[in-house]
Amino acid sequence: MAARLCARCLPPAWLCRQAGQGQSRHYRAAVCTELKQPLTIQEVAPRPIGPQETLWRIPENVSLQDAAVLPVSYGTAILAVDHRARIQPGETVLVTAAAGATGLAVIDVATNVFCAKVIAAAGSDEKCKLAMQRGAQSGVNYSQGSLKDAVKKLVGSSGVNVAIDMVGGDVFLDSLRSLAWEGRIVVLGFAGGNIASVPSNLLLLKNISAMGLYWGRYQHQDFAVFSKSMSTALQYCQQGLIHPHTGAVFKLEKVNDAFLHVMQRKSTGKVLLSLK
Predict the structure, then answer these.
(1) Three-state secondary structure call for residue 7
(2) Which of 45, 49, 105, 263 is deepest in the core (most CB within 10 A)?
(3) For residues 35 and 96, what is the distance between their CA atoms, to the nearest angstrom?
(4) H-helix or E-strand containing 258?
(5) Is the distance from CB of 80 to CB of 108 less than 8 angstroms?
(6) Which residues pair with 23 in a beta bridge?
(7) Do 171 and 198 contact (CB within 8 A), yes or no?
(8) How far apart are CA 205 and CA 56, in angstroms?
């Protein structure tokens, strides 16, 4: 049975570059939070170009592959680091799910743009190693013990200034308990499947700020912030300040393999589909 990509399977940000005789190539980084099973696709429905305000021209010195990584991952990272956490140079940042697309983007932006020190937390030694190769100063494998205890060994009892969590559950709670006085924690998701309740006494005792970030919502609630995040990502990439990481590229006819690669937690960085 043929299946078409539904509109909600595609994120809002279009990127375009002029090519050839007035022709355009259009690229979107596809993420579907509602998809539970791989698709069987025999036909991809043609997509009209979106409104002009949701088009961003790809600079000539930015590769199409790097550009495809920027929507969602880097838009989220920039808003998490700057707009929400307001990270300052020299601060220590704990990033969970650090080897995922958004985790690596947060590390990239925090270290290379905001000059922060990053502790990368992930579920395997291999993923921690990748996160450190991409800029993190330290790595913690939270599948081998307490994240809180591991962080304490690295920074002492003072704690980290900022935690950016994408896992939820016990990892979120350990991240919260690892914060310093007036620390900030930004919730980006619940990859672990469990949504933790916030112990409000911890917020009170350390004057902690807990906040969330849903990047796509800004498109409708505050488009200026949404648009700036994309423009800023392209600018950072053009200037060579950030270095998007592609973990794997699958041909479109291998879309099932791509989804299984992600669902089986084998992926690191952004997983892309290629039309060629």
Answers:
(1) helix
(2) 105
(3) 23
(4) helix 255-263
(5) no
(6) 19
(7) no
(8) 44
